[in-house]
Design a protein that fits this description.
By secondary structure, the chain is α+β, with helices and mostly antiparallel strands. It has helices at 2-7, 10-30, 34-54, 61-81, 140-146, 157-169, 199-204, 208-221, and strands spanning 89-91, 101-105, 122-123, 132-135, 175-180, 185-190, 224-233, 236-244. It has an 8-stranded antiparallel beta sheet. β7 (224-233) and β8 form a beta hairpin. The protein is elongated, with a radius of gyration of 22 Å.
């Protein structure tokens, strides 16, 4: 199924068409006819253009990563100043919330999540709810771009991993694995576009590529996703989480 997802991505279609044009061009040149040779050279040039120019990233990776890092560092400073120690809870949209949110509680353990709407940011602990901070996931815009091709809303948990392969097809993630263990879920992501390599902060506010995948799971299942732990191993980041209504 992964190959099917990859071939549906625009940049992969451009590469495939470029290769086909180059092959046609070579065949036409071999024919030795003047007009066919001209058409052949044109086909090869167009094919090379489609492979190199159309599929080339418009923003250098180091520049893109620097922009992301600035946003991540700002949130990290806020959580540090507020002394927030709890792990991220991804909240699905609902009647009062038009898009997914991350709630970072003061502590882990038994957490009573306050009613969160679009304007809600700081949880002050009123009505016996948990103190904390509510923010849009760092990868929400990325998820919106992915959803132009793949819709995650109202997807059975059994089909989520298949749909998540669209992140692989768009070169956001190199590989994705989602499986259920005894008491929690295990999500393994390989080579995110940008990662802080800070396991502690990944538990609270994951980088855009990771958080886009986690938000996609939240959106698909319409359940709260509570990050329990993260583990970094080279290019791979593993998230352990639970889900509940």
């Amino acid at each position: 199924m992964r190959k099917e997802w990859v071939m549906h991505q625009p940049h992969m279609k451009a590469k495939l068409l470029g290769i086909i044009l180059i092959i046609i061009g070579i065949i036409l040149i071999i024919s030795m006819s003047n007009i066919y040779m001209k058409i052949g050279f044109s086909a090869i040039l167009i094919g090379v253009f489609m492979i190199i120019m159309i599929t080339e990233k418009t923003v250098p990776e180091n520049i893109s990563n620097a922009q992301i890092k600035g946003h991540i560092d700002a949130v990290k400073q806020i959580t540090t100043q507020l002394n927030l120690k709890g792990n991220a809870i991804f909240i699905p949209k609902n009647d009062t919330l038009t898009e997914e949110r991350i709630f970072i509680p003061l502590q882990n353990g038994e957490i009573s999540i306050p009613e969160i709407d679009n304007e809600f940011v700081f949880a002050t602990g009123n009505n016996s709810t948990s103190l904390g901070l509510s923010l849009p996931p760092s990868g929400l815009n990325l998820l919106n771009e992915i959803e132009k091709d793949t819709t995650f809303e109202n997807t059975d948990i059994e089909n989520v991993e298949e749909k998540l392969q669209s992140f692989v097809g768009m070169d956001v993630i190199k590989s994705i694995s989602l499986k259920k263990t005894k008491k929690q879920w295990e999500l393994i992501l390989e080579k995110p576009l940008y990662c802080t390599n800070d396991e502690t902060f990944c538990k609270q506010y994951p980088c855009p590529s990771c958080s886009a995948v986690l938000a996609a799971v939240t959106k698909a299942t319409n359940k709260k996703l509570h990050v329990k732990d993260t583990v970094h191993n080279g290019r791979k980041t593993t998230f352990y989480f639970t889900m509940k209504e």
